[in-house]
Design a protein that fits this description.
alpha+beta; Jelly Rolls; 6-stranded mixed sheet; 19 strands; 27% helix
Length: 456
């Protein structure tokens, strides 16, 4: 039989060529409807994407990713719950950045209980901040103090005063108290002297400014003697609001004396400050939970904002609030929210930082030391307090090391805490001050990174 494979191949080739040629025919319409174009290679051809004219297409704006704060390993970072009013840490960080234009020191008011008494913790935090940002002096000191002999950051002496404290067992007039929850009435020739101390920190031995805060409704004569020199007198008329007497110089020690008072004037505190840099005022009240700050008259708070503007207010309480089986601390959180909001009103530009309670131990049924359960519950309420009032929070318990950290501080060599397993000593204060200082500096660094990112 004759082989016809070559004819079959030729016929197939003609059919393929014909189909390929049909692809190039002009469009054919039947009843005004175009017939589908023949394309034998349709499955092999890439899809054609029609590109519109870029001038006619409106593209959505590029959304810049939100800046995300980070927390470096090994640091317990400050948690900022501020809202649009920016009452977290922003103002304080901005004050540090712009401190050269403030024409005053950046000021911190550090409120707390016996945990910071005698300038424990605050003395070292002040020294760290002053070494980095400048400044000098111990800051605000009440006219008299029961623990003057135990405070190593200033030599404090006084004579001729009638002293009143919120912790007094007898009558205390809330309407006359200052930020430290004290007020003082001058007897004949009453005086108060502050002397800088070099041993504890290098920037405490001298200062540039000393101020005496008081209120008088009638005329008053004060004198100030700098470094044992000749006293200089200052005359004041009565006024409705608080007043301040200020002297300047190279002040190693300052003695203020009441030379003449024609009425029952009220006196508050004396300072040793720098002209710039950092000032940190310790306001410790033994046995306090912080609620007593809500009884300071608003007029007094606003007077301090006028005369001694603060850039950061720290509230560190809890030792006198926590109890072993404490679970519901609403009774504490509600009045403290009022305290925070009063401070926000009185100091409208100050950052506010709530420092949670640190570790505190108790003996369980087996006689073993363990973290008091009520402590961890209180921390959650303190954190909620910061969130609800839109301020900042620092978890001291976590920074110390959490569960059982107070035992470790007591047992360290040398010891950093007392055998009540509640209070730290000055070595412990220096350790915790370093942790807080590191958190503050890292927070400032993140703040500056955020500003730079948002400015791009």
């Amino acid at each position: 039989m004759k082989n016809k494979i070559s004819f079959t191949f030729l016929f197939t080739l003609l059919v393929v060529v014909g189909l390929l040629a049909l692809h190039y025919l002009p469009p054919v319409k039947v009843n005004d409807k175009p017939l589908r174009k023949v394309d034998l290679l349709a499955d092999l051809r890439p899809d054609i994407v029609e590109v519109a004219d870029s001038d006619t297409v409106l593209l959505p704006p590029v959304v810049k990713p939100t800046f995300v704060d980070t927390c470096k390993t090994g640091i317990t970072c400050i948690e900022d719950y501020s809202d649009s009013t920016m009452r977290g840490m922003t103002h304080f960080y901005e004050a540090l950045t712009n401190r050269s234009t403030l024409n005053r020191p950046v000021r911190i008011a550090y409120f707390g209980d016996s945990f910071i008494e005698a300038d424990i913790l605050t003395g070292d935090l002040r020294a760290m901040l002053q070494n980095k940002f400048g400044g000098c002096g111990v800051g605000y000191v009440s006219v008299t103090s029961k623990i003057a002999g135990f405070r190593p950051t200033v030599l404090h002496s006084f004579d001729g005063w009638e002293s009143h404290s919120v912790t007094d067992s007898t009558f205390f007039d809330d309407a006359r108290q200052d930020l430290s929850n004290h007020y003082f009435i001058a007897g004949k020739g009453a005086s108060v002297t502050l002397k800088g101390q070099r041993k504890y920190a290098s920037r405490l031995d001298s200062c540039r400014i000393s101020t005496f805060y008081f209120h008088t409704s009638d005329s008053l004569i004060l004198s100030a003697s700098i470094n044992g020199g000749t006293p200089v007198s200052y005359h004041f008329s009565g006024a409705e609001s608080m007043q301040a007497a200020t002297v300047e110089g190279n002040i190693r020690n300052i003695c203020w004396k009441v030379e003449k008072v024609d009425s029952v004037a009220t006196f508050y505190g004396v300072t040793m400050d720098g002209e710039e840099g950092i000032t940190l005022d310790n306001f410790s009240t033994r046995g306090s939970g912080g609620q007593q700050l809500g009884r300071i008259p608003m007029a007094t708070l606003k007077a301090y904002n006028r005369l001694r503007t603060y850039d950061l207010i720290v509230l560190q309480y809890g030792l006198n609030v926590a109890f072993q089986e404490g679970k519901d601390y609403s009774y504490y959180k509600v009045p403290m929210a009022k305290v925070v909001n009063r401070l926000k009103e009185a100091f409208p530009e100050a950052s506010i930082l709530i420092v949670g309670i640190g570790d505190r131990e108790y003996k369980d049924e087996n006689g073993e030391l363990r973290t008091m359960p009520g402590v961890k519950n209180l921390i959650r309420y303190q954190q909620a307090l910061a969130a609800e009032t839109h301020v900042a929070f620092w978890n001291l318990f976590q920074a110390m090391g959490g569960e059982g950290s107070m035992v470790e501080m007591v047992n360290s060599k040398p010891s950093m805490a007392n055998y009540d397993y509640t209070h730290i000593n000055f070595r412990g204060g220096k350790h915790i001050a370093g942790l807080l200082f590191e958190a503050l500096m890292y927070g400032k660094e993140q703040h500056e990174k955020r500003k730079a990112y948002e400015a791009e």
